[in-house]
Design a protein that fits this description.
Shape: globular
Strand content: 25-35%
Radius of gyration: 16 Å
Order of helices and strands: EHEEEHEEEEH
Structural class: alpha+beta
Number of helices: 3
Distance between the termini: 42 Å
Number of strands: 8
Largest sheet: 6 strands, antiparallel
Number of domains: 1
Strand order of the largest sheet: 4-3-2-6-7-8
């Protein structure tokens, strides 16, 4: 278990703070189930459905405080921080070889602006990385992958 110090926190967050690996273990009637992996999680987080996955990944970002959501949560006390000290329980390289029974993807959210996400998604086994400008666009890429898997 490694604790990131305050001075190296910003650098560590930029390098891997928003990187998430999602492994999909089942696809039933457009619903996916699987596990979410992030360096700050002791154990992988189960999800059921795309919306559940998105809510849980958003919670991870809220917990680590990166990428900041805009409008950011504010406090009456300027020195008060809702972000807990960041701890990494895993190195992100540990997740590289993990694969779901159906498919897996890396998710990198760079911004959480306009009440949505902006970033990129990279499916394992695919050479391309796809940019998305909203959660809806991200969901579209995941749904296309589900359809490709079924055909």
């Amino acid at each position: 278990m490694t604790e990131i110090t305050a001075c190296s926190r910003t650098t560590a967050l930029k390098m891997m703070g928003s990187d998430v690996k999602v492994c999909v273990y089942s696809c039933d009637k457009q619903e996916i189930r699987g596990k979410i992996y992030h360096c700050s999680l002791k154990e992988p987080m189960d999800f059921r459905g795309i919306s559940d996955m998105i809510l849980k990944v958003d919670k991870i970002y809220d917990d680590i405080g990166f990428p900041l959501a805009t409008p950011a949560r504010r406090s009456i006390n300027p020195g008060e921080s809702t972000v807990q000290p960041l701890r990494y329980y895993h190195d992100f390289k540990d997740f590289a070889s993990m694969e779901g029974e159906k498919f897996a993807f890396f998710l990198k959210v760079r911004y959480r602006q306009n009440v949505s996400w902006q970033g990129s998604i990279h499916f394992s086994g695919d050479v391309s990385s796809y940019q998305f400008r909203s959660v809806l666009e991200l969901m579209g890429y995941i749904m296309e992958k589900i359809e490709d898997y079924r055909t």
